[in-house]
């Protein structure tokens, strides 16, 4: 009966990856607990569902469900107060702390702030006015409380908001960060921006105030010459809406109907817990972007997962006009021309990204299969214990790493972490197509202790599909990228080091 309850809870909660709503850890008793090991991936798949997959039989219910208010968060059951445990040393390793909390059945009770009720303020675009400096509030951690019950569909804690840049509670703007921002502004203000210098400074993160213009430059959407930028922007935006007029009405034709239907189904699944992406106007923007891209790239067409790749660009270009609380901002409040510019820029930058990894989405997705095989070979060299552990319990890399490659880790990390990660990807040569492999390897090794503690197939797959990254911020992403760079430095120019 206990096993049935666990399976039912997993199915109810399967749409929320990386959730930190943990069940109280049971005490192991070798005499009373029976270990039920799934003998194959197919048997495991029958007993549970992927953390983000939603069956087609749920499409009508999902699309027809009422959308909650954009300015309120769902109430969370309040557990009865218990004695507050001793305060944690801030220098304790975050991963070790979280593991200890899980073992003792504790969870973070996230603070509620007034920012959840705000709708953001519209500001003038940085391309039309002087850049304004904004500061962001630091995260405050509440005392621990014993978890009493698990909600049916837990919401993302406030620490996972898009606008939060660092979960460690560091000061929002240090002297060093102000100096970096000023350096970016000098580079961007020069008549011909030095793109190599811009990439060098962007590798360790781009300040929020200049991220939109920097992303446009690094993606190749904008020219380095300042005098040509306005002309290029106007021409490319007009070209995109020319595609809309030419192709979008054909979405219900027989040869395009299936493509449009799949896009229409996938859009509500894109970051379902962030109100911004549940707005009808935003979903229509995503439908147009994805449909036009699919029509213009018949070799691959639309593939599930591409819908995720629009969101970082959309959020970054929207943040150019919104000071804070992007995730609750009503896009319809912006002028129509501004909405159109955000849509066109998101389309072109996403297209530039996909040009470098299109073999990931062509027939049989050969690019992903090659990358997953390379990841397996790399891990077998850098951490043989993990590799042998997977072999012992018959875990195939394709069963978890396919999604890592298909969605560029977007379903494993909070959106704010993805945006920081993409700062480096766009600064790194072949960041999305090549450096991502080493990021995935470093990401896997990050969970070494948790992986080796799992002693059955089902437990391993559940862990790898729901890694607890909900509290990650810039600090954790920076360490991940540093380790990935180390691996690249060791193996990228010496591939025989990771080939048997």
Q: Estimate the mean pLDDT confidence.
A: 77
State the shape.
Answer: globular
- Count of helices? 20
Low-confidence stretches: 5-39, 49-77, 82-94, 108-120, 124-160, 163-170
Radius of gyration over all CA atoms, rounded: 23 Å
Structural class: mainly alpha
What is the makeup of the main sheet? 2 strands, antiparallel
Widest beta sheet: strand line-up: 1-2
Strands, count: 2
Can you tag this structure with a few keywords?
single chain, about 500 residues, mainly alpha, two-stranded antiparallel ribbon, 20 helices, about 50% helix
3D structure, described in words:
It is a single chain. By secondary structure, the chain is mainly alpha-helical. The chain is 48% helix and 1% strand. The chain has 20 helices and two strands. It has helices spanning 2-12, 41-47, 59-64, 94-103, 175-189, 195-202, 211-218, 226-247, 257-266, 280-296, 311-318, 336-355, 366-382, 384-392, 398-406, 415-427, 431-446, 448-453, 457-465, 474-491, and strands at residues 106-108, 144-146. A two-stranded antiparallel ribbon has the order 1-2. The longest helix is centred in the middle third of the chain and has 22 residues, at 226-247.
């Amino acid at each position: 009966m206990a096993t049935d309850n666990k399976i039912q809870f997993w199915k109810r909660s399967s749409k929320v990856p990386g959730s930190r709503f943990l069940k109280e850890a049971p005490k192991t008793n070798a005499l009373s607990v029976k270990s039920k090991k799934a003998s194959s991936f197919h048997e495991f798949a029958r007993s549970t569902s992927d953390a983000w997959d939603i069956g087609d039989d749920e499409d009508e219910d999902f699309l027809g469900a009422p959308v909650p208010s954009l300015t309120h968060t769902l109430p969370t059951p309040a557990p009865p107060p218990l004695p507050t445990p001793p305060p944690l040393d801030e220098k304790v390793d975050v991963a070790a702390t979280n593991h200890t909390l899980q073992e003792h059945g504790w969870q973070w009770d996230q603070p509620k702030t007034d920012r959840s009720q705000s709708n953001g303020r519209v500001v003038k675009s940085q391309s039309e006015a002087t850049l304004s400096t904004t500061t962001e509030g630091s995260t405050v951690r509440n005392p621990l409380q014993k978890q009493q019950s698990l909600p049916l569909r837990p919401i993302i804690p406030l620490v996972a908001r898009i606008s939060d840049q660092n979960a460690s509670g560091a000061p929002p703007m240090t002297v060093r960060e102000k100096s970096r921002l000023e350096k970016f502004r000098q580079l961007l203000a020069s008549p011909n921006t030095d793109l190599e210098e811009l990439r060098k400074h962007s590798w360790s993160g781009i300040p929020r105030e200049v991220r939109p213009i920097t992303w446009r430059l690094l993606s190749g959407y904008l020219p380095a010459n300042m005098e040509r930028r306005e002309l290029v922007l106007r021409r490319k935006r007009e070209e995109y809406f020319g595609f809309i007029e030419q192709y979008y009405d054909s979405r219900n034709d027989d040869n395009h109907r299936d493509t449009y239907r799949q896009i229409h189904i996938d859009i509500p699944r894109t970051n379902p817990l962030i109100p911004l992406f549940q707005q009808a106007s935003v979903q229509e923007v995503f439908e147009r972007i994805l449909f036009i891209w699919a029509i213009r790239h018949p070799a691959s067409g639309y593939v599930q997962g591409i819908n995720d790749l629009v969101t970082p660009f959309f959020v970054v270009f929207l943040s150019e006009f919104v000071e804070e609380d992007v995730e609750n901002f009503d896009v319809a409040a912006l002028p129509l021309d501004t909405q159109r510019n955000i849509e066109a820029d998101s389309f072109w930058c996403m297209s530039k990204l996909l040009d470098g990894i299109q073999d990931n989405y062509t027939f049989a997705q050969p690019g992903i299969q090659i990358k997953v095989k390379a990841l397996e070979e790399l891990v077998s060299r850098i951490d043989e214990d993990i590799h042998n552990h997977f072999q012992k319990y018959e875990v195939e890399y394709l069963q978890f790493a396919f999604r890592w490659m298909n969605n560029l880790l977007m379903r494993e990390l909070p959106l704010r972490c993805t945006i920081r990660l993409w700062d480096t990807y766009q600064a790194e040569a072949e960041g999305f197509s090549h450096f991502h492999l080493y990021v995935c390897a470093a990401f896997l090794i990050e969970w070494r202790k948790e992986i080796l503690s799992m002693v059955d197939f089902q437990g391993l797959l559940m862990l790898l599909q729901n890694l607890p990254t909900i509290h990650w911020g810039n600090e954790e992403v920076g360490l991940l990228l540093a380790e990935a760079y180390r691996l690249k430095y060791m193996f990228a120019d010496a591939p025989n080091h990771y080939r048997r």
